[in-house]
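Incident review: delayed structure delivery

Summary: a single-chain prediction request sat in the queue longer than the usual turnaround. Root cause was a stuck worker, restarted by the on-call engineer. No data loss occurred. The affected request and its eventual output are reproduced below so the record is complete for anyone auditing the incident later.

Affected input:
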Amino acid sequence: MTKIEHPELGSILLVSSPRLRRITLTVRRDGVVRLSYPTQVGRERALNFLAEKKAWVVRAQARAAERAALMPPAADKDEVEALRAAAKADLPLRVARLAEQTQLRYAGLTIRAARTRWGSCSGKNQISLSLYLMRLPEHLRDFIILHELCHTIHHNHSPRFHALLDGLLGGREAALRRELRSYRIG
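Output delivered after worker restart:
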């Protein structure tokens, strides 16, 4: 991996690997651009690709900056520990109760200080929840937990997944999703 400074785009991370099959561009949350390319393609061709996609990169960096501005400041250590204690006291019981009510089974639960996702479910049905769920009203905590429990059946966001979730929520999935958008993690 090599880092270069582009006069207009800022920091560019160049990643070359013989295992890569195509040139890809990504813009990280901090605005840094990652240009990955197959070794056989060569650096010059990859940089030409970057030049062709410069307008896209500028737009992606602007979106990343907008999202970063919306993120609340990080919680201090004491607040994180208080949220962690509250999450460990509340979330395992809440997940177990909802799993029992819905007959959905999960393999295990972890609680993390995730700032990018409220929750996730692995392919092995291991659920992970952000301790920042404790800042949400209880009905939205339940919504996120049910969302992750539904992933134990459908590991995607297919129409069948949404039908299952919407059915468990009494037809309120869209309304709850809209309400959740007004909250930010972390």
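Verification: The two ends are 31 Å apart (CA to CA).
Action items: add queue-age alerting; document worker restart procedure.
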